[in-house]
Amino acid sequence: MKPFLLLASRAEDVAAEDEYEAYLRFGGLEPDQLKRIRMERAPLPELDLDDYSGIIVGGSPFTSSDPPEKKSEAQHRVERELAGLLDRIVDEDFPFLGACYGVGTLGLHQGAVIDRTYGEQLGGVTISLSPAGLQDPLLAGLPGQFTAFTGHKEGCTVLPPHAVLLASSAACPVHMFRIKQNLYATQFHPELDAEGLVTRIDIYRHAGYFPPESAEELMEAARTYSATEPMKILRNFVKIYGR
């Protein structure tokens, strides 16, 4: 099988390693089956899509809808590089799964409105599949409603007309969508279990997602949730597109 490629942009080593290990574990992949590029560190090298089974974009501290003057040079570079890569990915309908940051990147690339209207605090939420979601092969085996972990400052307010809505929550109308047949983005994190979320709460307690003094309370609350269904998305992605 050709490897999958994880495009990561978490500057904190602990968060970056925890994310990579989660994609390995829940995707059922060995290290040689999931290559990783940490985009925040250096310019994206030239990629030959034929070398990979599919591309995954992990979560990110970057917020796509921030004003340009508030974005770092690294964020501007990552956004430019992802936009150029998405030109090729969308044109070829190449297997793509963007988790959380995928909504901001794939959504903006395709003309969605991304803003801070539908942000959600870090924690467990109930995700509901749309009729199209219930029929989508990437969501095979998932129930109509399930718990997933999320935490995002921005969200998709208006989907482009050619996108297919797959999932929503009570507070966020677009939690997953598909472009063409093989391009997916989720707002929730399919790679996060409770301990993974606790790790991120600890790391990002001063990143503006929540009041720093509430970190311990959020960690305790995270451990009361059981999120086991979203990981099926990763296993399905590997099963469908591994080649």
UniProtKB/TrEMBL annotation:
<dbReference type="Pfam" id="PF00117">
    <property type="entry name" value="GATase"/>
</dbReference>
<dbReference type="InterPro" id="IPR044992">
    <property type="entry name" value="ChyE-like"/>
</dbReference>
<dbReference type="InterPro" id="IPR029062">
    <property type="entry name" value="Class_I_gatase-like"/>
</dbReference>
<feature type="domain" description="Glutamine amidotransferase">
    <location>
        <begin position="46"/>
        <end position="192"/>
    </location>
</feature>
<dbReference type="GO" id="GO:0005829">
    <property type="term" value="C:cytosol"/>
</dbReference>
<protein>
    <recommendedName>
        <fullName>Glutamine amidotransferase domain-containing protein</fullName>
    </recommendedName>
</protein>
<dbReference type="InterPro" id="IPR017926">
    <property type="entry name" value="GATASE"/>
</dbReference>
